[in-house]
Design goal:
Two copies of one chain form a homodimer. Chain A is built from ten helices and six strands, in the order βαβαβαβαβαβααααα. Chain A has helices at 25-37, 49-59, 75-85, 100-109, 121-132, 142-155, 165-175, 180-187, 191-205, 210-220; strands at residues 17-21, 41-46, 63-67, 90-95, 113-116, 137-138. In chain A, strands 2-1-3-4-5-6 form a six-stranded parallel β-sheet, with helices on both faces. The first copy, chain A, is elongated, with a radius of gyration of 20 Å. At the A-B interface, α1 and α10 of A face α1 and α10 of B. The first copy, chain A, binds a DNA duplex (30 and 30 nucleotides) through residues 164-167, 179-181, 189-193, 195-200, 202, 208-210.
DNA sequence: CCGTGTTTGGTCCGTTCGGCCCATGCAGTT
DNA sequence: AACTGCATGGGCCGAACGGACCAAACACGG
């Protein structure tokens, strides 16, 4: 199609094979276009996490570029599943917002890179190159907060752990519009227990009321807004 | 930079001058790349609504591609301001989610096109061409719901009206984690007034508490989650 | 077997929230 | 001039909420 653009480092990329996964075709096409021109080879594209998992095993790419927020299966969980069956593949996560907790989860899920979408194609290319060489690439600014997170974990406390299954049920019902008495009724438990779960949730999500908890949960992809 | 790619309909576009506005550089670059290659001329790029308004008046583009969710000034309000000073320019809105209310607001603000980001570059190009010719372009599926909306308006009721500026301030502060007393302090008004605004918001958004109101506002793009 | 975490439940207390009534003033519009 | 919408307030009340304690039952891994 195109005559290879005279890019600086394009020749230094020995046809790194990429799998792109994002639910927005516009972004997929933009990525494919620019990255192809920068010397990469896009072997497949996925519209959601489930497709990404399938295509990862069928096309065996070198690097997988995964959007965090995707239908069917979110990027973090997709990364976890891909990493479970393929320890060598490089995983670069893309996200809209620089969320500390999601970043932590993504790294824990086996991601090698984590970039906010507000970065240039050159930065993505550099990140892919770095990951291909076995390094870890983070968006500017995220590295600092990542270190802060590690330091915090080294400290003593565990401010953000994972929400339990029951707590997630409570959260989802709250997000769906239920009050505490209604959640209790739905789950066949007492109001007090619901309040206990909520108190636990507030601690884990660093929230002080249900509104903030639900918003944080939405940000983290724990609950879906109906 | 690039030799113009031998694209099919590129010659049929007499260098339509574009202004791109999106807060995510990745998407901006992808759009600029692909649209330039498709024969358009990108004269400027904006990172937020305020920049878009400025650049619209200084660079006088033919078509403005506006993301709905942007910092500083959201796309809908930016469209309104641009339309107020320039009646001829074509405005194409881009959005992540196909939200009915936002679509209605965008059209009312003077947008000529409304596309979800899950569409191909060719579809965007086609929409820009259509808008350049004075037509209105909507994403597939949105046209139908648009008609449904018009039909609903023809009916009789007005289930969801618009949130006022003051109400939006209150909503945003609530979403940012403020309680009623804190919102009152921030806005230098009494708690009672905040509660009055909230009551009005509940009616308009069909919510019964602040949690649901904020969630609905997030869905509708009224407030941004920080 | 003991510790940890999860889920279930309790009491008490002060604050917040949302609904209900109401009023005043200030802009536009008709 | 009258009407409508918006923003600003008041008081009252019952329900809901969140915190500060606590405790029992169960499962799971070391």
């Amino acid at each position: 199609m195109l005559t290879p653009a005279p890019t600086t480092a394009a020749d230094a990329r020995p046809s790194i094979r990429l799998l792109l996964a994002d639910d927005h075709r516009m972004l997929r096409e933009g990525l494919r276009h620019s990255l192809t021109e920068l010397g990469f080879t896009v072997v497949a594209e996925a519209r959601n996490g489930a497709e990404a998992v399938e295509l990862a095993s069928s096309t065996k790419p070198d690097i997988i570029v995964l959007d965090v927020t995707m239908p069917e299966l979110d990027g973090v969980e997709a990364a976890r599943q891909i990493r479970a069956t393929n320890a060598e593949v490089g995983i670069v996560m893309l996200t809209m917002h620089a969320d500390q907790d999601v970043l932590t989860e993504a790294i824990r899920a086996g991601a090698n890179g984590y970039l906010v979408k507000d970065c240039s194609m050159d930065e993505i290319a550099a990140a892919i190159d770095a990951v291909a060489l076995g390094e870890t690439a983070l968006s500017p600014g995220l590295a600092a907060s990542m270190l802060a997170e590690v330091r915090r974990q080294d400290g003593s406390n565990q401010p953000s752990r994972v929400i339990t299954a029951r707590e997630e049920e409570v959260l989802q019902l709250i997000a769906d519009g239920c009050s505490t008495p209604e959640v209790a009724e739905q789950l066949f438990i007492s109001q007090k227990t619901v309040k206990n779960h909520l108190a636990s949730i507030y601690q884990k999500l660093d929230a002080r009321d249900r509104t903030q908890a639900v918003l944080q949960a939405v940000r983290m992809g724990i609950v879906k807004l109906s």
